[in-house]
Amino acid sequence: MGYTHPDNFKVKRLPFSYAVWDLEMVEVLSRYQKGCNIHLFVDTGMNREGIRIEELEAFLSKIRSIPGLNVDGLCSHFADASSVSNVSRAFTAKQLVLFEDALRLVRAAGFDPLWRHISASGGIPQDIHHPFTLIRGGIACYGIQPDPRKAIHAISPVMRFVSTLVSVKMIKKR
Q: What is 6-150's CATH superfamily?
């Protein structure tokens, strides 16, 4: 599950695993979602969300003292796994090394995450397996090829979005 505003966790216990990268979210989950599963989200180079590798040991030390959570996952996100350029491939390889470094730190802190994932749809044709235990479906769930040059065979949508148009207004150009 992606970002959810912390106030939403106060409503009821939800049966999800949560990707976490900041202590505020960890503390809210500990308080309102006791016993929930969390996936530690590490930043391996996408620079969007995630715990920076150099901050991971301190983060792990702090969450070890927070009750009511089960660390059952470690995740990140490839920045450009579907690209065929040599520069992108080199960057993806660097992200893999950083992820493996993060996994070593997590295990050294006493956690052994069952779910280890870094790849969404774009990484499926890359055939990257170890040390990963799942791939997030991403855009492929909607039947969209992440990169037509490296097509995922027999892809078809597993879900769709449906909406209702509720209003149309004519506006003046300013």
A: Alanine racemase (3.20.20.10)
